[in-house]
Amino acid sequence: MEKEKTTMTKIKAGKICRVCGGTEFASGSTAQFECVVDGDGKFVRFLETNLEDAKKATYTGPFTCLQCGMRGTRLEDITADLTMRLYEKPFDEGLTADEIMSMIQEMGSRDVLLAEFPAKTHECSAMGFIDMEYEATLNDEEKEALGDYIAWILDDMNNENANGLYAFGGATIKLTR
């Protein structure tokens, strides 16, 4: 099947946990916020200007993956850049809107291309997104090898990783079955 090239809107994210593929991390940073309380001293709300300042802050470690608990002093110690995000689908099904939105968020603030990699011996394919810059570095032989690698995963459950993360030619691939 031929790949269709589409540039997507840039969205924040893009780093995933090296262990589980999680996309949210707790920071060791603490912050102090002014808040509004009622006459009994009970919390009502944060002052809005402080929340905006907090969103712009730089957070420091240690960091912990909220999904699996992996910890690191620096975020780079426990994360990897996601190069491809794919879902396995039967040939007669497409991606849902929720799957597409989830993949876009996980791919982060970069341009991506639509990608589909058919299995060789099963009636399914891996559909999703590939980082545009990474795809541009691949020659025809490497693209074919990438397709063969993904088909190898799709065609044999014994080749599957429990966390859905795979490495190929410098790429980090997340494949959900």
Lay out the secondary structure:
Blueprint: E1 15-17, E2 25-27, E3 35-37, E4 43-46, H1 48-56, E5 63-65, E6 71-72, H2 75-78, E7 79-81, E8 84-90, H3 97-107, E9 112-118, E10 124-131, H4 132-137, H5 140-155, E11 165-168, E12 171-176
Parallel strand pairs: 8-12
Antiparallel strand pairs: 1-7, 2-5, 3-4, 5-6, 8-10, 9-10, 11-12
Major beta sheet summary? 5 strands, mixed
Mean pLDDT level: 84
- In sequence order, what are the helices and strands, one letter per element? EEEEHEEHEEHEEHHEE
Q: How many domain units?
A: 2
Enumerate how many helices there are, as a single number. Answer: 5
Question: Could you tell me the number of beta strands?
Answer: 12
Strand order of the largest sheet: 9-10-8-12-11
Radius of gyration: 20 Å
Strand content: 25-35%
Helix content: 25-40%
Q: What best-fitting shape do the alpha-carbon axes yield?
A: elongated
From the N-terminal CA to the C-terminal CA, the straight-line distance is: 20 Å
Poorly predicted regions: 1-13
Structural class: alpha+beta
Structure description:
There is one protein chain. With 177 residues, the chain is an alpha+beta fold. The protein has two domains: 25-77, no CATH class; 80-176, no CATH class. It has five helices and twelve strands. It has helices spanning 48-56, 75-78, 97-107, 132-137, 140-155, and strands at 15-17, 25-27, 35-37, 43-46, 63-65, 71-72, 79-81, 84-90, 112-118, 124-131, 165-168, 171-176. A hairpin with a 2-residue loop joins strand 11 (165-168) and strand 12.
